[in-house]
Design the sequence.
DNA sequence: ACAAACTTTCAGTAAATATTGAAAATACAG
DNA sequence: CTGTATTTTCAATATTTACTGAAAGTTTGT
């Protein structure tokens, strides 16, 4: 006998938000921020800070900071609601749009600092003598070349107008 | 008058290791692990656990765990040194090789759990009634389609024999 | 200009993660 | 088989990161 367990909506919703939050840590995003995005992604209507606090049982400070971060990244927008003074928020629901923005944020965080480091280190290569110094110079040079290529590729993919470059890529490698 | 400050080798080395370690946190890798890789990358000779402890001033436990993790990922190898009972270690120095492996590790960590979550959630879509439920089902469906595409692409890029797919890609988008 | 509604900040606290170091386990030489 | 060198484990501790809640700041309607 095989039982198939199909979740009811409230359970599925909770699981989605909970899991998305936990996955956040794998992505270098803190749990609350990821949960706020998850909540807004599946909300059919704009939500206020109070709505978010209540749904996720988090503090006002936390809710506010999380929303600000998502606004900064450009994957959540403010939305005025007629006859209400509060701010309301909606998520960017198009997965292409928000993924590209996140991709770009991560590229800046993860790749740009490496380029900067390697550029600095590439300068002091005049007086190479020992085996240690040779190996160091070699690795810095190779890393630099490689990182620059990846960096340019990432820019092309994440910054192209309607994500057309990534789309092209997906079609090519489908 | 402009002064240009060119680093001497010991300083450059320290900066490389230190910065690589700090960048680790941006990449979801802990500092010690990233530092051990950095140290081994620029070492012209195999290093023992004691060498690593000494260079990075970290404990034996930490050094051991970091090395094991790098071995697990397949970006550091054991190397026997004649007449010495200790284990010695060398890094994979080819930036293409180790980057592809890291790319694959990250794909597994960051994408696979999302696929699993979405697969589970996609099952319970029979009784859709409210606007909330519709929005939820729609987002799960879109996310699922998108993530699957990206996942397949990542596999093709990171798992292709000599990184030839990524190489092809870089040439195409150069 | 005032007060109520709402948002932001941030010092204090809680939670999660990383590191140590010494004890236990294992591998090796004679 | 025994003693010694080496590696591994893991409870205790330190460090880093996240979260709270109340006070300060801001905006808006009258």
Sequence:
């Amino acid at each position: 006998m095989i039982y198939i367990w199909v979740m009811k909506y409230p359970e599925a919703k909770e699981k989605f938000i909970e899991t998305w939050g936990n996955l956040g840590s794998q992505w270098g995003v803190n749990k609350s921020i990821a949960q706020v995005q998850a909540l807004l992604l599946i909300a059919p209507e704009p939500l206020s800070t109070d709505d978010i606090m209540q749904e996720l049982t988090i503090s006002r400070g936390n809710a506010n900071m999380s929303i600000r971060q998502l606004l900064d990244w450009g994957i959540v927008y403010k939305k005025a609601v007629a006859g209400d003074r509060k701010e309301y928020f909606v998520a960017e629901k198009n997965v292409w749009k928000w993924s590209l923005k996140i991709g770009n944020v991560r590229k800046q965080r993860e790749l740009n600092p490496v380029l900067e480091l390697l550029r600095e280190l590439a300068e002091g290569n005049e007086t190479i003598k020992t085996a240690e110094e040779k190996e160091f110079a070699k690795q810095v040079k190779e890393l630099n070349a490689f990182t620059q290529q990846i960096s340019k590729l990432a820019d092309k993919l994440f910054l192209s107008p309607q994500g057309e470059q990534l789309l092209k890529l997906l079609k090519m490698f489908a």
Remarks:
- Residues 30-32, 58-62, 65, 85 of chain A lie near DNA strand D (CB under 10 Å from a C1').
- The longest helix of chain A spans residues 131-159.
- Chain A has a mean pLDDT of 94.
